[in-house]
Amino acid sequence: MRAAKAGAAIVAAGGVGLWLHDRKGPSANTVSETVSLPDFSLPPAGPKMSIVTGADRVKTVNRALAALGGIGRFIKSGDRVVLKVNAAFASPPALSATSHPDLVAEVTRLCLRAGAASVIVTDNPINDPQSCFSLTGIAKAAESAGAKIALPTRSSFKPTTLADATLIKDWPLLIEPFHGVTKLIGLAPVKDHNRSGASLTMKNWYGLLGGRRNVFHQDIHTIIFELARLVRPTLVILDGTTTMLTNGPTGGSLDDLKATNTMVASTDAVAADAFGATLLGKTAASLPFIGKAAAAGLGIADFESLNPLRDHVD
Amino acid sequence: MSQSCNEREWTERWVGFIILLCLAGIAAGIYLKQFSFNPAVLVATVAAPETAKPVSSPSPGETPSTLPPELAALSAPETFAPDDLFNKIDGKADLYLTAGFVQLHCQRFALKAANDVWMEWFVYDMGALPQAFSVFSLQRRSEAQALDLTEFAYQTQNALFFVCGRYYVEAVTAMPTEPMMAAMRAMARQFVAANPPGATRIPELKLFPPENLEAGSQGLQMADAFGFDRFTNVFTAKYRLPDGATNVEVLAFLEMEKTSADAAALRDAYRSFLLANGGKETESQDAGSTGKPIEFMGNIEIVFSEDNAVAGVHAVPDAASAAKVARLLADGMRKGKNE
User: Fold this and answer.
1) A-contacting residues in B 62-81 (Cβ below 8 Å)
2) Which of A27, A226, B182, B325 has its CA 20 to 30 A from that of A304?
3) How far apart are CA A237 and CA B246, in angstroms?
4) What crossing angle do the helices spanning A288-295 and A220-230 adopt, rounded to 10°?
5) Is the pLDDT of residue B1 over 80?
6) Hey, is the C-beta of B93 within 8 angstroms of any chain A C-beta?
7) Bigger pLDDT: B286 or B252?
8) Residue B102 phi, psi (nearest 5)
């Protein structure tokens, strides 16, 4: 009798389990609220790229922007601007692992002078953002120039999905600093990278991802390409004043660095990165993410075909 | 007796009923929870910023128990495991993970006399000496100056890098004043004293013949060496041949297998890999026991096996230099084996 009862209980439990079993599993899009970034790019008009040589990044960035028609071409009165910097490491500016504070401050000043209502400087360094922004000198420089620092918190992220993407599906995106923002400028240093071969302007968008984004390192070129599809900036500025030639992206030794004294401003991130590759002694063809982005029509890998405006400042 | 049986039966029934009730509660909870399940948000919650884990009591011996008197801690010590190493070093984490990384301890220290002059101290526990040597060798700076600290140690103008047993240690400052560099060296010596590297050596390195060997050029690649996924423990060394004005640099390599049959199989697999990817066998009178060289992407590759080792030269611009170093290596390995 007891065996029969136990058997009946097992059958009943099994039946309930079968009834509750969801054969399909959770759908990838179970989220009611997903977000995406607006397209911050401007309609094509005027030159797309400038390359200015010189050791003083404040002078070179001014000249590079002037060559493109001035900051006023990109920033209008009342614009709310995000500067996406590279503040990935709690590393001092001398090691060139992060965006240089002098450049962040100068671009902030230029945006405010052009009439921007606000400038927000942000990145998601993952590890102790406060230390990263502080020790890189970015926080102090940006704030003294009039920008606000947006440190990521848990509530700063919302899931995003990129259409037809392989990797960016329902993935946390740093979105909070972009509320009400009208323009986006990327400020990236030129660095060697252990996985991707190079860390340039498109790789810089990696800092907008949350979650355990290191999983993307297994397919680094695809994630950079998808980020280039996801993020359409107003302008990118590639700082090759000092290039981290080896042991990137962290570096550590001053011997990893070389003075390459070049500043690039471009509305075409693919072209900027293709040029950046040359500062690393590489070619665009050797960096698959550039080829993928170019093939998808996100920009021009043959940057010379854009007739970049070249100049030099002492 | 019968009453006792009845009581037990009732007790069992009630216990069973309570257990079933608990299971039903859990099932209901899971059923309700699945409607709000979102993997992305879950990930965001887990890996949101501020994930650094300050360690109140670092493992003894890994962070120096006493600092040089001129230094003071500037930050709390942190520790990172394989699953969160990327939080600290992002894209460089893979380099360590593929080499067997166990744990990272790091902390910032400043000069007491000048608080704005600071350095960061990184101790990577790589589990064993070869792994520590691997990450050391893969990042060696070309401008390195030898440092009299351990067998594998150097300094650059702003940093120290060394292997101490299972640990790979970096001390990095952006303000390389002489007091700071001296304090870093003192801290390094203290670390070595507290963690004696012992007598363990890497025997494979002794198999590279010393003639024309570039000092400090030995390395160890623990994954996908030369793009070949079966090369997972490849020791390398650079040779510079002073032939005329060319001064050719040749990269020699070797990997130890368990048996000579394994070594021969790996040798053949690498040859097949090269040939399958566009390599072509060339004739060489100098090749001897090192086999026919393969021309691959404009360079020369030679691979041979010697007892339980696979060895050769990689991406050498000219055939004569390749053959010369391959012969040197083969002779050196035979000699080293007999010593």
Assistant:
1) 75
2) A226
3) 41
4) 40
5) no
6) yes
7) B252
8) -110, -50
Q: Does B158 touch chain A (CB under 8 A)?
A: yes
Which superfamily is assigned to B203-338 in CATH?
TM1622-like (3.40.1000.20)
Task: Give pTM, 2 decimals.
Answer: 0.81
* Pick from A89, A195, A199: CB nearest B94: A195
Among candidate residues A251, A204, A238, the one with its CA nearest the CA of residue A224: A204
Those residues whose C-beta lies under 8 Å from the C-beta of residue B91, and which sit 6 or more positions away, are A193, A194, A195, A196, A199, A217, A220, A248, A249, A250
Distance of CA B187 to the CA centre of its chain: 23
Instruction: List, in sequence order, every residue forming a beta bridge with B114; answer none if it has no partner.
Output: B111
**Who's near A193: CB < 8 A, 6+ residues apart?**
A199, A203, A220, A248, A249, B91
Per-residue pLDDT tens digits for B48-106: 333 434 443 445 444 556 689 999 999 999 999 999 999 999 889 999 999 999 999 99
**Strand A309-312 versus strand B234-241 pairing type:** unpaired
Question: Could you give the CA distance from residue A275 to residue A306 in angstroms, rounded to a whole number?
Answer: 11
ipTM of the predicted structure?
0.80
Asked if B141 reaches chain A (Cβ–Cβ under 8 Å), the answer is: yes
Among all residues of chain A, which has the CA nearest to that of B140? A247
DSSP assignment string, B76-118: --EEE-TTTTHHHHGGGHHHHHTTT--EEEEEEEEETTEEEEE
Which tens digit of pLDDT belongs to each residue from A168-212? 999 999 999 999 999 999 999 999 999 999 999 999 999 999 998
Q: Which CATH superfamily is domain A37-312 in?
A: LarA, N-terminal domain (3.40.50.11440)
Q: Which residue of B has its CA nearest to A95?
A: B174
Domain boundaries in chain B?
54-194, 203-338
Select the residue of A94, A151, A249 nearest B92 (Cβ to Cβ). A249
Give the 3-state secondary structure of residue A304. Answer: helix
* Listed residue (B266, B268, B260) closest to B307, CA to CA: B260
What is the distance in angstroms between the Cα of B85 and the nearest Cα belonging to chain A?
9
